[in-house]
């Protein structure tokens, strides 16, 4: 994904809590904004397809990026069946989401993405190739996933190329911190996998340190995630001389 100054951020933002937000919703955000300009085709796709693919969730006290903490997503009702669930945290423009959903039609894929232009771009790409096993929740994953799904609901969780926040003073904004690690562990079924990829060596070291500090996790693989496609973000990282690091942890 791109740098925080790009119109397509991996996720960046200002710390603290919005006025009127309940204390239990307070956190340091890892995203900058939900909006951004959309090409007309993407806007049209969102208008036509959001009703089918984007789950209408009740919002919490923190506003449009939150989910009411009392809300529980009915997965069989949402997808129309019972199937192994993959939760992608930050689907961006949907490359991994679409590749995974196409390769595993027997799985359901739920993307929790705060960046509406990315959802719209994904929907535009899905317009000619419908994916009935895909749904989106437009929300801050750190807040939504702590309450929205039942414990053990996910077979896998994917977090590919989260914003690395490379400056030391910004490290607190990184998505993968102990509190979010705990959220993902609660979310996964026993033995479920959390697949992570980054193109920043410093963030890879940070990930390893955070995960090693939690004895509930076992490093399962350092190989490329089997369903993860090669995206333009990865190619940009390689072109800049950065190594791509894949880590899979078993709960």
Considering the chains and any ligands shown, give keywords for the structure.
251 residues; alpha/beta; Rossmann fold; 7-stranded mixed sheet; 17% strand; globular; disordered N terminus
Helix/strand layout:
Layout (H helix, E strand, L loop, with lengths): L39 H14 L21 H5 L5 E5 L5 H9 L4 E5 L3 H11 L7 E4 L3 H4 L9 E7 L17 H10 E11 L2 H12 L5 E4 L10 H8 L5 E6 L1
Parallel strand pairs: 1-2, 1-4, 2-3, 4-5
Antiparallel strand pairs: 5-7, 6-7
Describe this structure in words.
- The longest helix has 14 residues, at 40-53.
- The protein is of the alpha/beta class and 251 residues long.
- Residues 1-28 and 30-34 have low confidence and may be disordered.
- It has a seven-stranded mixed β-sheet, with helices on both faces.
- It is 29% helix and 17% strand.
- It has helices at residues 40-53, 75-79, 95-103, 116-126, 141-144, 178-187, 201-212, 232-239; strands at 85-89, 108-112, 134-137, 154-160, 188-198, 218-221, 245-250.
- It has a single domain (43-250), classed as Rossmann fold (3-Layer(aba) Sandwich), CATH 3.40.50.
- It is built from eight helices and seven strands.
């Amino acid at each position: 994904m791109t740098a925080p100054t790009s119109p397509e951020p991996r996720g960046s933002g200002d710390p603290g809590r919005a006025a009127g937000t309940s204390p239990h919703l307070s956190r340091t955000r890892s995203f900058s904004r939900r909006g951004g300009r959309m090409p007309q085709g993407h806007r049209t796709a969102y208008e036509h397809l959001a009703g089918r693919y984007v789950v209408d969730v009740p919002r919490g006290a923190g506003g449009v990026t939150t989910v009411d903490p009392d809300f529980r997503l009915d997965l069989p009702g949402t997808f129309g069946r019972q199937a192994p669930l993959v939760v992608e945290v930050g689907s961006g423009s949907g490359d991994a989401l679409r590749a995974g959903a196409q390769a595993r039609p027997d799985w359901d894929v739920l993307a929790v993405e705060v960046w509406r232009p990315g959802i719209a771009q994904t929907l535009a790409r899905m317009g000619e190739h419908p994916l009935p096993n895909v749904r989106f929740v437009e929300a801050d994953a750190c807040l939504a996933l702590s309450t929205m799904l039942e414990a053990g609901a996910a077979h896998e969780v994917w977090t590919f190329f989260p914003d690395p926040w490379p400056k030391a003073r910004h490290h607190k904004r990184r998505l993968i911190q102990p509190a979010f690690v705990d959220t993902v562990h609660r979310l996964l079924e026993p033995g479920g996998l959390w697949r992570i990829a980054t193109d920043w060596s410093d963030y890879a070291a940070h990930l390893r340190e955070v995960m090693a500090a939690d004895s509930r996790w076992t490093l399962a693989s350092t190989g490329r995630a089997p369903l993860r496609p090669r995206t333009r973000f990865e190619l940009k990282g390689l072109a800049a001389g950065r190594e791509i690091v894949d880590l899979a942890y078993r709960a």
